[in-house]
From TrEMBL:
Membrane is among the record's keywords: yes
Name of the protein: DUF1275 domain-containing protein
Record's keyword terms, sorted: Membrane, Transmembrane, Transmembrane helix
Organism domain of life: Bacteria
Pfam families named among the record's database cross-references: DUF1275 (PF06912)
Keyword presence, Membrane: yes
Originating organism: Hafnia alvei
Ranges that cross the membrane: 15-33, 45-64, 76-101, 113-132, 138-158, 179-195, 201-221
InterPro entries linked to this entry: DUF1275 (IPR010699)
Amino acid sequence: MSFIGGGMEIISFKYLYKALIGYMTSNMIFGINSLAEGDFNFSSFYHILIIVIWMLLGAGHQIIANKYNFHAKSAMHGYAIAMTTSTFILLLFILIGQYMFRHDLLADSPTLSVMPLVTIGLLFMYIQNFIIRNGGTAYPTTTSVVTTVYVLMITRLAGSFNRNKTALERRASLSEGTHYVMVLIHFFAGAYITIKLSEYYQFDSLYLVFFVLLLLTFKVWREHSILKNQFGKNVAS
């Protein structure tokens, strides 16, 4: 999943005026810097507005989650629905982004007209980071690679050499540490490949990320189907 996050972040940084749509701290820094420069125009409030939209998405998600009860038919059911939703949102982001680029609708500085596209990107990253969260693993890893991942990686890898731990605990630390190494590698690969493709295909460079997500979505639905059938057989017996 971090491969997908890397691709999205690098495209948003390149075409959406350095908007890292999965990193609100970065947007806060950009926003503070713009305001400090004293130019009180839309560009100055652009990154702050991104944070506001992100918080509204979070609030809306919590309101919906508290109001409606979802009865999952397997442990992967909710995960599969979230994956499917994010797949369609990513496709919409690509189509609108490429249309705006081809028709010169992306100005030299951010304008209000770009906010629908930014909001779609934020919704995608919100689902990836706070609904899907961990890419189906048991580890606390989100799509966007944050500082915590680096710390966890070093801590767990170092723990695998700690002789005060049992052999089982050391193996568990090594396994988790290796997982975080792969998260970073996948994020780097997603960002690097996508930015190189964007030199020729702009937003369409995200189709590689899209097809990766689509394959993962089919995989998750298959796992859901297997678990659902097993549950049905257990109930019948």
